[in-house]
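Q: Hi! First time doing this. I have a protein sequence and I read that you can turn it into a structure. Is that right? Here it is:
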Amino acid sequence: MEHDVTPSDDWHIKEELAERMIPLIGGLNRERDVVTSLHGHRLLGLSTTGIIEVHERVAQLGHRRLELTDTLAVLEALRTIGPGAASLDVARLVEGHAASGRGLIEYLREELAPALGAEPTEPVDVVLYGFGRIGRLLARILIAHKGGGSGLRLRAIVVRKGAENDLVKRASLLLRDSVHGRFEGTVDVDEVNAQIIANGSRIQLIHSDDPGTIDYTAYGIHDAIVVDNTGRWRDEEGLSRHLRSTGVARVLLTAPGKGGLKNIVHGINDSTITPDDRILSAASCTTNAITPVLAAMNEAYGIVRGHVETVHSFTNDQNLIDNFHKGDRRGRSAVLNMVITETGAAKAVARALPELAGRLTGSAIRVPTPDVSLAVLHLTLENPATRDEVNDYLRRASLHSRLRQQIDYVESPEVVSTDFVGSHRAGIVDGLATIANERDVVLYVWYDNEYGYSCQVVRVIEVMAGSHPVVLPARREVRLHADALV
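A: Yes, that's right. Below is the predicted 3D structure, encoded as structure tokens:
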């Protein structure tokens, strides 16, 4: 007798398929330095339910529905042919194979030829100078991306001496986070050698008050990229102190750079990075969130002028309770007040996107939430557009354009700020909030000002290090113009 598959049975089948994927995904990463994803959504580190959920999510975003059986078949075939270090989009491989008319192994060998037999690249040492909100998230991302060890390698953290049990406290802050949850893995300490051990990675803790006096080579660190998370020095002269230390090759600031310092927003102007750029800035979280959306809108419709209003979660430079503060208004309690403050994000856009110089103004309101912010973009366009046209364009840009790592898109009447904690994208367009009246458009862009920004910073570090693996299938670069996104 035949029986219909019940929803419960169907779920159990999905669970079984996802469970079989987990060791394949992990093994490819550990043994071959292969990172697998579905249309840009990483599979590495996901739970059984996480793998099922990401299959549903890519379908909701407008991609062709991907069956778990097809994903599993490609993962098993990848394990068989053993490609070298690469970033592989399994969903696109499934689609390509379906259209090829060839056997799976034959198709993959041809499509992944650039990664077959590829030798692992030399690891690049990274040092985090400062271990606050951004520093700890960068540590989490770098540790998670370790793979077989041929890419970026977190070697040390530099902080000022805080207490006798400083090492234990720093490790505890890496392990536990009130906003982003518990670290996925194990964190231990080696007090004899002053090291944090996170998922097997030994990370040296160095105490210093002066970035120019450290001999990193004494810890086996050479030609390192130092990521300055303190914001204490923000121009080339100040940040050049790091280059006086032995073992440092380059410096990246995780704050807006001043003077002539090149501010990089990945996806916008990272192609301007040259080997001669020894000191760079990764701009601000807000600049990273809004610049890709502004670039997309400017290319498709032209921006005559605009105003950016940021509704920003409070930060560590504000007071918990009313107290003296050198800045205006920021002395009032961050957890009890909305605080009007200044932002340089609108002007900073022009550092990465010069064609918008002089066209944008900006203001900011700090609000009593610990993470995730919202940018409201009031734009006057050269070419008129309807709400549906703008939304459809930005949705497709998030899926197919060169800015798909930066721009995400959501349409839900239920989402609120906490739903975007942990987003890998620089900014997420809230389509249901879009307002369009001919040439006047208002866009609402959510962004995880901690984690989303940290992902952008890591992308910049990869460009500086030349360590990003080959991306396969090769991405077809599509112009952002609305008529070109099909």
